[in-house]
Predict the structure.
Amino acid sequence: MKGLPPVLITAIVLVVGFALCAVQFPNIASTRVVGNLLTDNAFLGIVATGMTFVIISGGIDLSVGSVIGFTTVFVALAIERWGMPPLVAFVAILVLSAAFGAAMGAVIHVFDLPPFIVTLAGMFLARGASFLLSTESVPITAPVYSTVSDFALRMPGGGRLSAIAIIMLVILIGGILLLRLTRFGANVYALGGGRATASLMGVAVGRMTIKIYMLSSLLAGTAGIVFSFYTSAGYSLSAVGVELDSIAAVVIGGTLLTGGQGSVIGTFLGVLIQGMIQTYINFDGTLSSWWTKIATGILLFAFIALQQGLVALARRPAAKRAGAIS
Amino acid sequence: MENSLDPAPPLLEVRGISKSFGAVRALQEVDFTLRAGEIHALLGENGAGKSTLIKVVTGVFPRDAGVVRLGGDEVAPRSAKAALDAGIATVYQEVNLLPNLSVAQNLFLDRQPMRFGIVREGEMRRRAKALLTGFGLDIDVAAPLGNYSVAIQHVTAIARAVDLSARVLILDEPTASLDRHEVEILFGIMRQLAKRGIGIVFVSHFLDQVYEISDRITVLRNGRLVGERETASLQRLELIRMMLGRELAETTSARAAASDRPPREVCASFENYGKAGYVAPFNLELRHGEVVGLAGLLGSGRTETARLVFGAERSDDGQARVEGAPVRLQSPRDGVRHGFGYCPEERKTDGIVAELTVRENIVLALQAKRGLHRPLSRREQDEIAKRYVKMLDIRPPDPERPVGLLSGGNQQKALLARWLATSPRLLVLDEPTRGIDVGAHAEIIRLIRELCDDGLALLVISSELDEIVTYSDRVIVLRDRAHVEELAGETIDVTNILAAIAADGAAMQEARA
């Protein structure tokens, strides 16, 4: 039940939108295009999965774009300049980003600060740190990168399901299971329903807050690694604004920005919608790519209005009851 | 029973609990005893200390003195959760559950049945269903709690508390938002739980319900224990006397002479004024130089009447007149425009702005009345502030001090000064002496009478009947959201007011059914 109707609407928007695109450009309806879409948006899907947990819990994480940027630079330097084996570099950055998220969660809980402010500080910190490491784009030439880039599952119709798309899908499924089936997931919803109440009901609010931001940063770090596979480089200016793209995907996916309701699958649909708009613009060829942002903006407005409408509808029976008593 | 030498200790024993907030003594050496299997009503007017007592017992507030024993063992919970673990559960009027989660998740949050790290959803729903069936509820436990009525949410909260092995169940105003039928269901559950040996504390201001359900009644007043009685042997009139108190009954007719004075001009009148579900339509005339008191129990419609008069709530129907001319009162702005002032009951939240200085608080309403385009110069502000600080004897006499640092009595005076600065024709005072020490009390009352002698019309709400009797020219008695009686001149005394409040509750029953 939770969050299903908005998800359905998102799914309908995606299907109808895709159909319209396919009518105009029949080539869009191919596994090749869909495969590329998944590959191009793999990092966004991963980071938006983490963002979904944060937003359902009633928070926000503005630092994820910067964490991706930092990760690409760190990984590139670690492999190319410091001579670290790629796997060691990956583990190191994942531990680092998880610690970073845990620290933000701890600050939010201990000092009772708005997540917006704390993660905004985190955003500047991570971005600044990546400039400190290097201001230039560092190409990655390690053999593992070309291996991963070359790897792909063939899909019927000539499409390729790349390694990073597979990583994204695995994380997505993991996210769905974590949110739906575990006590951790239930507590995420509980926090979004009301921190004070959840605490009264026995949820360890502090520990949950730390874990949620840790998860978000960990997934941002993972997205950073995936992004470095995607571009085969580390650059301190990469993934600027991705935190906003991922928030947009989460909201379009039917998650309530005020927390308490939402789903990972909805977020995935939100990512696909953004990817679809981009694909359409690429096919058209005459439109500026900034139309992606405009279309995303319009969709965001539409979905926020829709959510407000649904919330108002949900409140109406209560109002009717109050009227009946008088 | 036979073993009288070693009687079982009471389930919950509270002895000598005291609690102060700053200078305000919210609880003074209060005792409370709850026996297993009884339903015990905890009564008192606003500010009597019921909520504070509950919060101190459940560890939400630390206590200054006293002991709490549960089943003979001393307990000192530091938080609501610790109290719950010890076996004391509280269900508040606002249900403390999560409306976005399913009913089942609410019942089993943080203690869901698990297997291999996965919540056993089916098992959890089965158990939730079984648990609620025991409470007479047959609902879809997979649906979000928010989809259900407040009554069902209350029962769910109670079920959760009981399932967490609560031995003491505190229900704080559980019936306030329930209709008659839902109240019956709740009472059925309460009786059933009492039969199982759970002790239930029932806080309510619906006296009919108290008489219907409770075995025993404890009354608090002004943070002190007034007494504990068996419900069956306690007359309603006596109960109301306990709640409202009447230690100073001799002072009754202090103002009786007022009725000899010639009738004065009507300042404002309200005809057939009322709002459905808020307060029943009433007629009210307020004259210059006259104090009208509003008396009644908590929730009887006193504050509601005041808010309608001021324009803070809109009347469904009826006509308001100011100095004989019909006016429309749609908002507090309208009230201020027609020369009305309103000092609300909740000084801290609705009245003063604690961070601003005395001067800024005093000129607030006057500036609002003049509008932004005609700002008061600093000189004018200083002058006004100085005048009222002197006139009302606000202490310390420093207009630049933040109001939050003043004592309750002086805050109240600053609030009065704010409205006096607008030279109002009608001032509405809601509990002007609440939470003020005795000395300041007398001063506020003296002020009220002086203001009235200067030709102001006053409408004053108070739970202190002796006070009302002291300064009122007329007293309007409210019961169950309706004006039921008007007393004037010689007939104003505490006994008559009590009689009017206590008049048979049968009519009330009917109205709610």
User: Anything to note?
Assistant: The radius of gyration of chain A is 20 Å. Residues 317-326 of chain A have pLDDT under 50 and may be disordered.
